[in-house]
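[step 3/7] inverse_fold.run input=structure_tokens len=361
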């Protein structure tokens, strides 16, 4: 039984980057032997185990055989006879297919270290095209390492994957996980550019047709925002209804879906009014944007727009007014003897007065 450090940890060490997590491959072991040594198996059918102390992942060396479509269309074979080279051969890129033994010696069958030095993203084998998720991961690595270039043969494999329809079998949930990693790279616009170059953008995001506009906005916002909220920079050119349908098809989390809709609504309102509003207009849009229940979401939406669009100085006061107005409540004495509808009207009037006072300051 031999244990090797593999994948991103080895790659990042060679590139002088901080290692965030370590993955290990175990050659010559069985599940029974791993469990006997205190490892905890993750799932029933997948040969991955958690170390009893570090909780890091230790995977039995394995091979994969294509049996269906998509990310899950594989049969996994793992037993003590599978070699380290066979395990590394199934990986996506050469820079991710380098191993390190217990003495710190590199095992690099496919020229990964050379590709790191030459700044090249290259597939390990033609099996790359069997898993459509690898196309998305490749584009993500391009966004993470913008100084690298993608090998021409790898680009051709990606285009072939799109043409064959294999990419159609990707699930929106799995793609969203890649988006989340892309947002943290600081270069999400490059991710979109490469997807578009691979002809995959139109498949994954069919309603988002103004690619250059999406790239421009997400790049601007990424200067100050590097998390899931960046998804709300896409599709501002769509109608509210179309954007909602497009985002639902992507099966995004509800908070991102609602944030995206709000950003689109505020931006459209900005186009009409420049967000320079009277107190009456302001209190009405505060209700429309649900700031009295979801102030933080409104502030996020406004920050996204502000990171992309130059706003009138008076428009920038909106968040300050919102923070003041949401604190306004009715005292019990003010609600005494009133019906529910009358209470709502009284609260509205009090909030309207609060907007008027805030705008005078």
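[step 3/7] decode complete -> sequence:
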């Amino acid at each position: 039984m031999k244990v090797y450090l593999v994948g991103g940890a080895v790659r990042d060490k060679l590139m002088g980057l901080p290692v965030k997590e370590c993955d290990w491959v175990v050659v010559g072991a069985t599940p029974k032997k791993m469990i006997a040594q205190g490892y905890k198996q993750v799932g029933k059918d997948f040969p991955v185990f958690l170390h009893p102390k570090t909780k890091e992942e230790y995977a039995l060396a394995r091979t994969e055989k294509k049996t269906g479509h998509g990310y899950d269309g594989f049969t996994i074979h793992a037993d003590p006879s599978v070699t380290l080279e066979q395990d590394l051969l199934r990986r996506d890129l050469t820079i991710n297919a380098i191993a390190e033994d217990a003495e710190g010696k590199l095992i690099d069958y496919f020229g990964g270290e050379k590709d790191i030095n030459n700044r090249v993203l290259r597939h390990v084998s033609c099996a790359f095209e069997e898993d459509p998720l690898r196309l998305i991961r490749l584009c993500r690595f391009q966004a993470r390492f913008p100084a690298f270039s993608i090998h021409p043969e790898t680009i051709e494999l990606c285009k072939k994957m799109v043409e064959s329809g294999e990419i159609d079998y990707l699930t929106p949930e799995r793609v969203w996980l890649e988006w989340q990693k892309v947002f943290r790279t600081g270069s999400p616009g490059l991710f979109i550019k490469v997807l578009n170059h691979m002809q995959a953008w139109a498949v994954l995001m069919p309603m988002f047709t103004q690619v250059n506009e999406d790239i421009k906005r997400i790049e601007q916002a990424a200067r100050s925002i590097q998390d899931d909220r960046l998804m709300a920079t896409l599709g501002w050119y769509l109608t509210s209804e179309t954007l909602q349908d497009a985002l639902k098809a992507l099966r995004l989390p509800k908070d991102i879906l609602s944030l995206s809709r709000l950003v689109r609504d505020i931006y459209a309102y900005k186009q009409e009014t420049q967000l320079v509003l009277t107190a009456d207009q302001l209190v009405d849009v505060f209700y429309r944007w649900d700031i009295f229940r979801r102030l933080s979401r409104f502030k996020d939406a406004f920050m996204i727009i502000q990171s992309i669009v130059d706003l009138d100085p008076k428009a920038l006061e909106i968040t300050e007014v919102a923070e003041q107005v949401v604190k306004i409540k009715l005292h019990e004495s003010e609600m005494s003897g009133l019906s529910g509808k009358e209470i709502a009207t009284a609260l509205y009037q009090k909030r309207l007065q609060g907007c008027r006072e805030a705008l005078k300051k």
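[step 4/7] annotate
The two ends are 74 Å apart (CA to CA).
The CA atoms of residues 194 and 318 lie 37 Å apart.
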